[in-house]
Amino acid sequence: MKEIYVDPSIDAVNEPIPYFDPSTGDIIRRIETPFINRVSRLKIRKFLTEGQDLNIRFSKRLTGITVTDEHAQVTFEDGTKYTGSMAIGADGSHSVVRTFLLGPEAAKIERIDHTMINFPASGYTPEQIQLLRSFHPITQLAHSQQFGSALVATLDAEKGMFQNYTSWWGPPYAEDLQDRTVRLKFYKERLSHFCEPFKTGASVVNEGTEIPVFAGAQWAPPKEGWDNHGGRVTLVGDAAHSMLPHRGQGFNNAVKDASDVVDAIVAVRDGKMTLKEAITAYEEEMRPRGAEEVRLSLLQAESSRNGNIMESPMFKTGHQKVT
């Protein structure tokens, strides 16, 4: 599995993650996260699909779902329809499948007074790459009460690609930064106040580069659940529990969801459970787990707003999963 790591030469890192005061460069806490590693989304996609007979279609926009006792059928914007035993909604934080299951009001994403810029960057010199990984080979974090939070993380060590992230509370909001020139100027000025390695992380972003901006939002699954239509329609990943990225648990929970849904389907195939029983059991475990991660991620984000960063979930528990 090392081929999916951001750095295949590293098995696991036991070194605590440094958390910086960006105005001074001091490390205010080293966050214990035993055996941490990071995987590449692109490498995972290649690993899971290469050599497999999979019918993957891109640029499809889901518009509707119909369910009978025997199947689920999905309809796309281009008019095409596909029928199967189940429809599994892995369609992100603005999930159409979630809206089908819960209705537009209950499925509506909750806007948070928080804004993020997050993008990959490459083109660093060997010296810059060494600096970006000198404090920790995988990731490092920073928080400033005045300028918000930042992260620099390895995305592909062999290609010298890094994730650059910054976020803040209050204005300017995503809608205030729709002009890409204004957005880039804002980003570079903000990161100029940060210490290394964050300043170097932002240094390769040149004039004319388009960097994305995201409005903070979340959705937590309700305690009482929903009608899964006999187990034929369910949710996984961000569609099931869309959380802020501050604890880094979105991917971990999505993998847990996928594994548990596969186990549920296998149990149905083997005659151990009905489809409704298996999917309902999956959802009954997933909902409280997902809701708690949404809550903790927001709590972590809010700790940077109210100055209680030292009491935040990240500082107390690191990246450990909720039990």
Describe this structure as you would to a colleague.
- GO terms for molecular function: FAD binding; monooxygenase activity.
- The chain has 323 residues and is an alpha+beta fold.
- It folds into 2 domains: 2-40 and 111-217, D-Amino Acid Oxidase, Chain A, domain 2 (2-Layer Sandwich); 57-108 and 220-303, 3-Layer(bba) Sandwich (FAD/NAD(P)-binding domain), CATH 3.50.50.60.
- It has 9 helices and 12 strands.
- It has helices at residues 41-49, 96-102, 104-107, 126-132, 180-191, 198-203, 250-269, 275-306, 313-317, and strands spanning 17-20, 27-31, 62-67, 72-76, 81-84, 87-89, 110-121, 139-144, 148-156, 161-169, 213-218, 233-235.
- The protein has a 7-stranded mixed beta sheet with strand order 2-1-8-9-10-7-11, with helices on both faces. It has a 3-stranded antiparallel beta sheet with strand order 3-4-5, with helices on one face. A two-stranded parallel sheet has the order 6-12.
- Helix 7 packs antiparallel against helix 8 (275-306).
- The longest helix has 32 residues, at 275-306.
- The chain is globular and about 60 Å long.
- The mean pLDDT is 91.
